[in-house]
Amino acid sequence: MARPVWSGSLSFGLVSLPVQMYSATESHTVHFHQIERGTSDRIRNKRVNERTGDEVAAEDIVKGLDAGDAYVVVEPEELDDIAPGRSKALEISGFVDLDEVTPIFFDKTYYLGPRGKEYAKVYGLLHRALGRSRKAGIATLVLRNREYLVAVKAEADLLVLHTLHWADEIRDPYDEVANLPEKSEVTDRELKTAVELIEALSTDWEPEDYHDTYQEHVRRLIEAKQKGETVEKAGEPPESTNVVDLMDVLRSSVQTARGKRSAGTRAKKASGTRKSRDTKKSEAPRKSRGRGKAAGGKQSARLDGLTKAELYERATEAGVRGRSSMSRDELISALSPSGGRSRAKAS
């Protein structure tokens, strides 16, 4: 089980609920060390006095704000003394319709759980009440010497906390973005065709269908360099659409998108037919199942002879979930017939 990043009491009205907060997301980014070119020597960052060049111990470092003619020095304990909410309180000041909170305010997501089984009833009550009212509780929270604006909402079987940006942290787009059009000159035909393109490209939201392709390419590059091989370079970005050819480009895009959708529909039907055949095969006598196991053994043996990069490519083609964080053995297990069936059951 993960360790909580914060513990305290969530309160609304006179009701108080001891809770613990857990990170809801994790990063799979490949992290590199800094080394000197041509060597295996690590590069270390040191805290040094810019005047003397001497290294300074962490306990001798304090915070200072440049006030022009001198620095205003602040000790770490002084910041702790003035931090609001030192009593570990998460007090909901009001409830709002979550749809009114625009996405730009959302920052990071955490899971909230009761601190003990004895608080399950109060936790369940707040969860069901938020779900039925379709509201989110707005509160403030102090975490790692910083105060956050947060929203607490019901999701699936648990409470979720979203940290929010403060209003004065949101930049005005008209101050930041150059060349924003005051009024676009768009014809009805162009608008209608653009809407058709959006409809043709519309799909169901399936987050498992999307993955970090850049990190996949980084891992392939590392594995290729380990074997002294090279990888194919990425293609050039598309050229900007010429406004004169906009209508032609829109029409071609709609036709292409509709063609892909038709191909996808046919593929799904074919997949359904294969599943039906697989179901019939699974109902075959045990003797034929034994031959299937033998074939599965041969398949596993063939997978053992592949590199991790080759296994990863097969996992990508097969749509294996979680493949980016799998080891070589886990990829072999997921791609083997028995492993694929067990993963399908799990999903």
Structure description:
The protein has about 350 residues and is an alpha+beta fold. Among the domains are: about 5-25 and about 80-170, Ku70, Chain: A, Domain 2 (Beta Barrel), CATH 2.40.290; about 285-345, no CATH class. The chain has helices at about 75-80, 120-135, 175, 190-200, 215-225, 245-280, 285-305, 310-320, 330-335, 335-345; strands at about 5-10, 15-25, 65, 70-75, 90-95, 105-115, 135-140, 145-155, 160-165. The strands form two sheets. Strands 1-2-6-9-8-7-5 form a seven-stranded mixed β-barrel. The chain has a two-stranded antiparallel ribbon with strand order 3-4. The longest helix has about 35 residues, at about 245-280. The radius of gyration is 28 Å and the shape is extended.
List strands and helices in order, with pairings:
Layout: E1 6-12, E2 15-23, E3 63-66, E4 71-74, H1 76-82, E5 89-97, E6 106-114, H2 120-133, E7 135-142, E8 147-155, E9 158-164, H3 173-176, H4 188-201, H5 213-226, H6 246-282, H7 286-304, H8 308-318, H9 328-335, H10 337-346
Parallel strand pairs: 1-5
Antiparallel strand pairs: 1-2, 2-6, 3-4, 5-7, 6-9, 7-8, 8-9
